[in-house]
């Protein structure tokens, strides 16, 4: 699962460096072999043409006769053994050793990376052609995709039963193919996938049309004719559908757009709009928010008070600026990297931890004792919140990979989730402190669909909110999500603060929390 974190992908790049080196060495060895053969060939040719000039005289000479026989016996054996020498074998052996010891992506990674791309495409409404040109929201980041690259994305979507994206990418593959001088994929392959996914999307006439086009360019195609007959029968059955006109000029884009996938829930819609920055907090609410300094009667904060920005009033979401230094961030990343595991979620019913498509990232947990910096961060959270850290969870460090995200969720356990945090014996997650340890060039916001709030990552800042009402009830407006990362690598770490021990620190009822008293 290398695609789930950017740090792992860095290692994959190193793997590639090694492989490319091995490939270079192999090519060199193969080249040397061919050079040697070339040399033999030219020597033999010289001798041969000399002989051919005057065959009689040449053969009559016993030395020449001997040399001729020698050329075709021992010399030729050398040539043959050189020809049969498998130069690649040793290199292949080396490569398989590298594969064992180095990070090497699997087919699952390829699929995960492809799914991530289609997720980005949907969430950020990215244009397929722009994406194929290597552009993300108008910014060109990478090289262009070939027709074969697009085809592969379509094929991955197809294997996942995602016929909507199959269509989008196969169409893109086809349009790219048209302008390629060195064709990277067969048009018939594109047409076959396109036709079948179109059929799966419920557009029989277009599926038939595409299959006919396929038969035009490949009349003996092993499956096309059978499919054609099948589509025709189905159309006959539906009876009321008519085969689309034979618009020759339109190539395979016969007017119809791919049927858009299932309707989104209102929350999903709002979540994506917030991620895209299309929706922001209501202006009346925004106008009441403040920025201020907090010293909290804490002598340490006299010199460097907390710089606080309110992001939402109720539930109060606060942003603390400059609360994690670059060197703390470096330490935390370094400690976490070797321990990264695919982030898990708690199964609603069983309480078991498991991986899920809706949470894609890698994470690790750090204990205070491991490094002064971890402890310092924990103390700072105490100073920021006025809450005790005695019952807080360890520091969780997270890195999001390509399209990495965490769909809308609560950090607290709902009443029915009886398993959650039971073993900890510290009560529910009363509050969350989320540190942003990197800037994110595009995407990656933390959004709260219920209240239309968004916090954009900024290195060194932290977001804070209470997950529970003072009564201990969960605050359902704290439902939040990590938007997919569109460009860059997103690092966060968070401290989940628990209920136990906070009884006198966060007074119940309407009394404000300690940091607000001294604001
Ligand atoms: O990464 C983010 O922006 C939010 C992460 C989050 O909500 C979580 O880990 O519970
Ligand atoms: Fe969360």
Give, in spatial order, the strands making up the sheet with the most strands.
3-4-5-17-13-20-11-10-6
What is the CATH topology assignment of the largest domain?
Jelly Rolls
Structural class: alpha+beta
> Which percent range fits the helix content?
40-55%
CATH homologous superfamily designation of the largest domain: q2cbj1_9rhob like domain
List keywords for this structure.
Serine Threonine Protein Phosphatase 5, Tetratricopeptide repeat, Jelly Rolls, 16% strand, extended, 16 helices, binds 2-oxoglutaric acid, alpha+beta
Provide a concise account of the structure shown:
With 519 residues, the protein is an alpha+beta fold. It has 16 helices and 20 strands.
Fold and architecture overview:
The protein has 519 residues and is of the alpha+beta class. The protein has three domains: 2-101; 107-250, Alpha Horseshoe (Serine Threonine Protein Phosphatase 5, Tetratricopeptide repeat), CATH 1.25.40; 291-517, Jelly Rolls (Sandwich). The chain has 16 helices and 20 strands. It has helices at 6-53, 55-60, 62-84, 87-101, 107-123, 128-132, 147-159, 163-178, 187-200, 204-217, 224-238, 266-276, 283-286, 326-336, 372-385, 514-517; strands spanning 135-136, 139-140, 291-294, 306-313, 316-321, 341-342, 345-346, 353-354, 359-360, 362-366, 395-400, 405-409, 429-436, 442-443, 446-448, 453-455, 462-466, 480-482, 485-487, 490-498. The strands form five sheets. A nine-stranded antiparallel β-sheet has the order 3-4-5-17-13-20-11-10-6, covered by helices on one side. A five-stranded antiparallel β-sheet has the order 9-12-18-15-16, with helices on one face. The radius of gyration is 32 Å and the shape is extended. 33% of the residues are buried. Residues 247-255 and 509-519 have low confidence and may be disordered. Bound molecules: 2-oxoglutaric acid and fe (ii) ion. Fe (ii) ion is lined by residues 409, 411, 480.
């Amino acid at each position: 699962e290398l695609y789930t974190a950017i740090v792992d992908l860095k290692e994959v790049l190193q793997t590639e460096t090694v492989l490319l080196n091995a490939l270079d060495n192999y090519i060199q060895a193969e080249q040397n072999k061919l050079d040697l053969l070339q040399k033999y060939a030219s020597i033999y040719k010289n001798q041969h043409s000399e002989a051919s000039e005057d065959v009689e005289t040449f053969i009559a000479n016993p030395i020449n006769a001997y040399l001729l026989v020698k050329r075709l016996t021992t010399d030729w054996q050398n040539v043959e053994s050189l020809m049969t020498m498998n130069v690649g074998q040793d290199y292949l052996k080396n490569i398989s050793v590298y594969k064992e010891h180095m990070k090497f992506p699997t087919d699952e990674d390829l699929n995960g990376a492809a799914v991530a791309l289609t997720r980005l495409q949907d969430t950020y409404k990215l244009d397929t052609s722009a994406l194929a040109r290597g552009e993300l929201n108008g910014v060109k980041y990478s090289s262009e995709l070939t027709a074969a690259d697009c085809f592969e994305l379509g094929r991955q979507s197809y294997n996942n039963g995602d016929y909507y994206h199959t269509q989008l990418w196969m169409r893109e593959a086809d349009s790219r193919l048209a302008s390629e001088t060195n064709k990277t994929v067969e048009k018939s392959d594109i047409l076959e996938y396109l036709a079948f996914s179109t059929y799966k999307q419920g557009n029989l006439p277009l599926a038939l049309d595409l299959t006919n086009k396929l038969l035009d360019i490949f009349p003996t195609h092993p499956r096309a004719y059978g499919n054609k007959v099948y589509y025709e029968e189905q159309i006959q059955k539906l009876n009321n559908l008519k085969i689309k006109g034979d618009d020759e000029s339109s190539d395979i884009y016969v007017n119809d757009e791919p049927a858009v996938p299932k309707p989104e829930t209102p929350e999903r819609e709002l979540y994506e709009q917030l991620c895209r920055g299309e929706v922001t907090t209501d202006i009346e609410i925004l106008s009441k928010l403040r920025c201020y300094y907090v010293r909290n009667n804490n002598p340490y904060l006299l010199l460097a008070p907390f710089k606080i920005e309110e992001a939402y009033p109720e539930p109060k979401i606060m942003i603390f600026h400059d609360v994690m230094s670059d060197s703390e961030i470096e330490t935390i990343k370094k400690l976490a990297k070797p321990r990264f595991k695919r982030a898990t979620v708690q199964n609603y019913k069983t309480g078991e931890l498991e991986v899920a498509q809706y949470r894609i990232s890698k994470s690790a947990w750090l204990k205070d004792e491991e490094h002064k910096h971890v402890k310092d961060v924990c103390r700072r959270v105490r100073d920021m919140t006025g809450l005790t850290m005695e019952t807080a969870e360890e520091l969780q460090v997270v890195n999001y990979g390509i399209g990495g995200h965490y769909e809308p969720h609560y950090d607290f356990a709902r009443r029915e989730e009886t398993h959650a945090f039971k073993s900890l014996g510290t009560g529910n997650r009363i509050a969350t402190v989320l540190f942003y340890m990197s800037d994110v060039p595009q995407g990656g916001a933390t959004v709260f669909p219920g209240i239309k709030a968004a916090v954009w990552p900024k290195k060194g800042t932290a977001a804070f909110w209470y997950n529970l009402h003072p009564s201990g009830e969960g605050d359902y407006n704290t439902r939040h999500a990590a938007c997919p990362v569109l460009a860059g690598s997103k690092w966060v770490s968070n401290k989940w603060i628990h209920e136990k021990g906070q009884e006198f620190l966060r007074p119940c009822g309407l009394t404000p929390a300690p940091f607000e008293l001294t604001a």
